[in-house]
């Protein structure tokens, strides 16, 4: 049985990414939408990282985490979007076995790292609001670096384990993955292996990853809400809540989409694809907008940066 599984597995050299089951005319529209969203992701996240690295006023723990969030959003969307856009024009829609493994591995790494990073950001907001006098001491540069490094490390460990579990399955049936990227559930649908052990391990991994991050976020916000409600002035309460609203919005979109996708029954694959769009493309696009539009420091840094560019441009025009 083991030899048969090995043979079946080794015969697979590529997969077919089915993508969205729509007419060819709509493929052009979808390509343009993907292209626009991906361009906004590149512009927004690269812009956010540039502003954070160049403006000394943003040299704080919150913006250190935000810069890493932009980095993660940029890279995990880049793992998915370019290949999806190519497939809108490709007749074969194929992806090599190695390409599928690489895509799955990198996406898992970055999406898990983002979950832990959002938990670290919730802890940062908890310290800032509940212990403001000790904030600079408790949220030291060393601790911030350790939290970010720990997020990437957890992503790497999870990625290696999940990729190993998924791609040791035997794929002896159809090569057609009913999705626009390589993901666990669509790959399991085309496997002829016994999925019981694989699903138990995957569920355990997801529980170990998701539950601690959600618990940290929930407990942090319970303390934050409790502290904010004790503030007597409405202006103070509004200011305190405004520092958390952006983070809370990002958490809600990401985890809402993830839960919706994995709780959707297998008989509704198109719904899973729509939910996947939310956290593979929509969330990375919205994160820079949410943080820039609701953050005075970022808006001021952006205004300052644009002002310098306009001044430089006008100086060049004046000389010429």
Automatic annotation (TrEMBL):
<dbReference type="InterPro" id="IPR000276">
    <property type="entry name" value="GPCR_Rhodpsn"/>
</dbReference>
<keyword id="KW-1003">Cell membrane</keyword>
<keyword id="KW-1133">Transmembrane helix</keyword>
<feature type="transmembrane region" description="Helical">
    <location>
        <begin position="200"/>
        <end position="224"/>
    </location>
</feature>
<comment type="function">
    <text>Putative odorant or sperm cell receptor.</text>
</comment>
<comment type="similarity">
    <text>Belongs to the G-protein coupled receptor 1 family.</text>
</comment>
<keyword id="KW-0812">Transmembrane</keyword>
<keyword id="KW-0552">Olfaction</keyword>
<feature type="transmembrane region" description="Helical">
    <location>
        <begin position="63"/>
        <end position="81"/>
    </location>
</feature>
<dbReference type="InterPro" id="IPR017452">
    <property type="entry name" value="GPCR_Rhodpsn_7TM"/>
</dbReference>
<feature type="transmembrane region" description="Helical">
    <location>
        <begin position="274"/>
        <end position="293"/>
    </location>
</feature>
<feature type="domain" description="G-protein coupled receptors family 1 profile">
    <location>
        <begin position="44"/>
        <end position="291"/>
    </location>
</feature>
<protein>
    <recommendedName>
        <fullName>Olfactory receptor</fullName>
    </recommendedName>
</protein>
<keyword id="KW-0716">Sensory transduction</keyword>
<keyword id="KW-0675">Receptor</keyword>
<keyword id="KW-0297">G-protein coupled receptor</keyword>
<feature type="transmembrane region" description="Helical">
    <location>
        <begin position="244"/>
        <end position="262"/>
    </location>
</feature>
<feature type="transmembrane region" description="Helical">
    <location>
        <begin position="28"/>
        <end position="51"/>
    </location>
</feature>
<dbReference type="Pfam" id="PF13853">
    <property type="entry name" value="7tm_4"/>
</dbReference>
<keyword id="KW-0807">Transducer</keyword>
<feature type="transmembrane region" description="Helical">
    <location>
        <begin position="101"/>
        <end position="123"/>
    </location>
</feature>
<keyword id="KW-0472">Membrane</keyword>
<feature type="transmembrane region" description="Helical">
    <location>
        <begin position="143"/>
        <end position="161"/>
    </location>
</feature>
<dbReference type="InterPro" id="IPR000725">
    <property type="entry name" value="Olfact_rcpt"/>
</dbReference>
């Amino acid at each position: 049985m083991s030899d048969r599984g090995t043979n079946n597995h080794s015969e697979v050299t590529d997969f077919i990414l089915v993508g969205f089951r729509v007419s060819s005319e709509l493929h052009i529209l979808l390509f343009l939408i993907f292209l626009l969203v991906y361009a906004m992701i590149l512009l927004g996240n690269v812009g956010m990282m540039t502003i954070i690295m160049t403006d000394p006023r943003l040299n704080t723990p919150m913006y250190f985490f935000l810069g890493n969030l932009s980095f993660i959003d940029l890279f995990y969307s880049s793992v998915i979007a370019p290949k999806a856009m190519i497939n809108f024009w490709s007749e074969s829609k194929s992806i090599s076995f190695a390409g599928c493994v690489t895509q799955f591995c990198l996406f898992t790494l970055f999406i898990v790292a983002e979950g832990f990073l959002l938990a670290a950001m919730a802890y940062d907001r908890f310290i800032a609001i509940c212990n403001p006098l000790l904030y600079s001491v408790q949220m030291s540069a060393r601790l911030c670096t350790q939290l970010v490094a720990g997020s990437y490390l957890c992503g790497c460990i999870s990625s290696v384990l999940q990729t190993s579990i998924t791609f040791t399955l035997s794929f002896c049936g159809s090569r057609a993955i009913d999705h626009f990227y390589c993901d666990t559930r669509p790959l399991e649908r085309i496997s002829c292996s016994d999925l019981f052990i694989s699903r138990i391990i995957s569920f355990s991994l997801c529980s170990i990853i998701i539950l601690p991050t959600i618990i940290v976020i929930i407990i942090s916000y319970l303390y934050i809400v409790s502290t904010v409600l004790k503030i007597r002035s409405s202006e103070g309460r509004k200011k305190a809540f405004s520092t958390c609203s952006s983070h809370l919005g990002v958490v809600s979109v990401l985890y809402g989409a993830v839960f919706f996708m994995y709780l959707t029954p297998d008989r509704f694959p198109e719904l899973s694809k729509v939910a996947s769009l939310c956290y593979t493309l929509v969330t990375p696009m919205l994160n820079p907008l949410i943080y820039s539009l609701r953050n005075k420091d970022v808006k001021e840094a952006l205004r300052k940066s644009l002002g310098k560019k306009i001044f430089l441009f006008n100086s060049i025009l004046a000389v010429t």
